[in-house]
């Protein structure tokens, strides 16, 4: 058994699984996340968020898998009686994209759902997250990278019910520079990372997303007062996590507490998942000290 502080991980994602009464922690777990051949994704499990078991091999690429490098940011959702993993991959002469994988258990083994990513093949994309709207239609929210567009963008695209293909063209939600808290990298490049959608008690949609702020890697909040994924999206002035950490998500404990996890610090090899309790008041999230 280990503490979460013992686990090196980026882009943490916690699944509260009611079928097994267990928490599962996923994230970017390769030793070299930026270059070199991708190994796969490890996962960890816990009954209480304090003591963790693992690592378990949740995904290892089959021989014919298209992805070669940049195995990033897996998240897992229980949907239509299966566990679906959305994760980012890259290959030589192919754009980075979000691939869906599927399994019958939270620890996998996860297998590719299709032979290619669901993000546009000609776009450099990452960090897809699954959202189910009020009509039970699945959507994927994802980033289009600053590497290709300079001012990073976040899009939503509707998916088929079986999650195997997109239904229509991606809808631009916003650009990174539209938020007042973002700071360009190297003077011109605005980053979009790690979107995650949360519905408030008053039926607004919040999006947690990360970029560079005045204190380093940070996480802010955008909101859709219409309650729809296509927005329009407005940005909170105050960041939720201000300094040297981000790519977060929100989950509820089995007791009903609202929790935020991010990785911090942002520098290799010291990244760790941090778990913090949050409250929601009048549609706003507040970290508890």
UniProtKB/TrEMBL annotation:
The keyword Phosphoprotein does not apply. Gene3D superfamilies: Glycosyl hydrolase domain, family 43. One of its GO terms (biological process) is carbohydrate metabolic process. It comes from Paenalkalicoccus suaedae. GO terms for molecular function: hydrolase activity, hydrolyzing O-glycosyl compounds. Pathway: Glycan metabolism; L-arabinan degradation. Keywords: Glycosidase, Hydrolase. It holds the Pfam family Glyco_hydro_43. The keyword Endoplasmic reticulum does not apply. This is Family 43 glycosylhydrolase. The record marks 127 as: Important for catalytic activity, responsible for pKa modulation of the active site Glu and correct orientation of both the proton donor and substrate. It comes from the Bacteria. Belongs to the glycosyl hydrolase 43 family. InterPro entries: GH43_arabinanases (IPR050727), Glyco_hydro_43 (IPR006710), Glyco_hydro_beta-prop_sf (IPR023296).
